[in-house]
Specification:
Number of domains: 2
Helix content: 25-40%
CATH class of the largest domain: Alpha Beta
Bound molecules: the ligand CC(=O)N[C@@H](CCC[C@H](N)C(=O)O)C(=O)O
Order of helices and strands: HHEEEHEHHEEEEEHEEEHEEEHEHEH
Shape: elongated
CATH superfamily of the largest domain: Zn peptidases
Number of strands: 17
């Protein structure tokens, strides 16, 4: 598949970002493209809003898996591009339009010229939340497609086009969402002493919460608590009876996340007393770390270094989360970063990846499928 075709697919997908498990238009679009491919080697099944596609090998003994995530984010796009999102308030700001396009490109190449083994392309919903990987992995349908090794990519705006980057072991963090609802007595703006003011309570809580990372977690461990959203109150001259904060916890070690949760719960108990309020905690969805299998990363690095299509860069572990970690907990494999050179990063309303990276990604995925040996 050439760059023009890849670019057309990517721009079509870019215009229809949908949230996790709502990827209906995306699924329909992908199925339409898939139906145009030579069908004799393909087995296509849908799972919720996702799709599993097997390219049946010439003489199959094993199965190779490649996963692409499908969902967008609740972000208002601000790129000014001619193919900007048509879904007001939603954007492919994490590159999943790129991931799906690259998967389709590699699938097209493989369907035209299959290898001996079967290759499964996994179009997985809901990576940003609430998490599609774990329920898909546990589904009866997935058992029919289950690969013997699996890999995936994520775009990296910070890296130039042509760079491929990964590492053995930990690549992405353990994550847990964090939702806290504050309830207390509201009232007239002029009589604060007769209220409990949940806006003051929640904002105090947010700044003190950071001390859990700085004073309760061993500094040798890595941890992040980010609050990305705070809401509360109804109007400017009424003291709020409700506020809500929404965030995420990230740690390099799976056990540290439990330590942080215990500390948050202790802190909440004391805070409820001192601020005369009730706080409910919801941890939302939790993702297991992305931990790459060394034997596969070592081979992948060799393939990249001898490919002439891309350059290798040894990665550092990052605090990003990915439910692909659940696939890697069960099935050996790896994830890698693909350079797309954007001045604005992941989850930014101006993210604008360079489309020439689509071709690099497609070649790297196809070549890896053709050359990587099972270990
Ligand atoms: C690659 C990436 O950006 N992934 C997301 C995953 C989010 C999981 C969940 N909603 C959470 O916030 O914990 C990320 O924000 O790292």
């Amino acid at each position: 598949m050439d760059l023009n075709r890849l670019s057309k697919i990517r721009q079509d997908l870019h215009q229809i970002p949908e949230l996790g498990f709502q990827e209906k238009k995306t699924q329909t679009y992908l199925l339409t493209v898939l139906k145009k491919l030579p069908q004799e080697h393909l087995k296509i099944e849908t799972w919720r809003t996702g799709i599993l596609v097997k390219v049946i090998g010439n003489n199959s003994k094993r199965v190779i898996g490649f996963r692409a995530d499908m969902d967008g984010l609740p972000i208002q796009e601000n790129t000014g591009l001619s193919y900007q999102s048509k879904h007001e308030g939603y954007m492919h700001a994490c590159g999943h339009d790129f991931h799906m396009t690259i998967a389709l490109g590699a699938l097209f190449q493989l369907a035209s010229q299959p290898i001996d083994d079967d290759v499964v392309f996994i179009f997985q919903p809901a990576e940003e939340g609430p998490g599609g990987a774990l329920p898909m992995l546990e589904s009866e349908l997935f058992a029919e497609f289950r690969p013997d090794y699996i890999f995936a990519l994520h775009i990296s705006p910070e890296l130039p086009v042509g760079i491929v980057s990964s590492r053995a072991g930990l690549l992405f963090a353990n994550t847990s969402e964090l939702f806290l609802d504050f309830k207390g007595k509201g009232g007239h703006a002029a009589y604060p002493h007769m209220t409990d003011d949940m806006v003051v309570a929640a904002s105090t809580f947010v700044s003190q919460l950071q001390q859990i990372v700085s004073r309760r977690v061993d500094p040798i461990e890595s941890a992040v608590v980010t609050i990305g959203k705070i809401t509360g109150g109804t109007v400017q001259n009424v003291i709020a009876e409700h506020a809500r904060i929404e965030g995420t916890i990230r740690t390099a070690n799976a056990s540290t996340i439990n330590k942080i949760k215990t500390e948050i719960e202790l802190f909440v108990k004391g805070f409820e007393q001192s601020h005369h309020c009730e706080i409910s905690i919801d941890y939302g969805s939790n993702y297991y770390q992305v931990y790459n299998t060394k034997a596969y990363v070592d081979q992948f690095k060799q393939i990249i270094q001898s490919s002439g299509k891309a350059k290798w860069l040894e990665a550092s572990a990052a605090m990003t989360g990915e439910d692909f970690g659940y696939f890697l907990r069960d099935i050996p494999g790896f994830m890698f970063w693909l350079g797309v050179d954007s001045a604005y990063g992941l989850h930014h309303s101006k993210l604008n990846p360079n489309e020439s990276a689509l071709e690099v990604g497609m070649h790297v995925v196809e070549q890896t499928i053709r050359e990587l040996k099972f270990v």
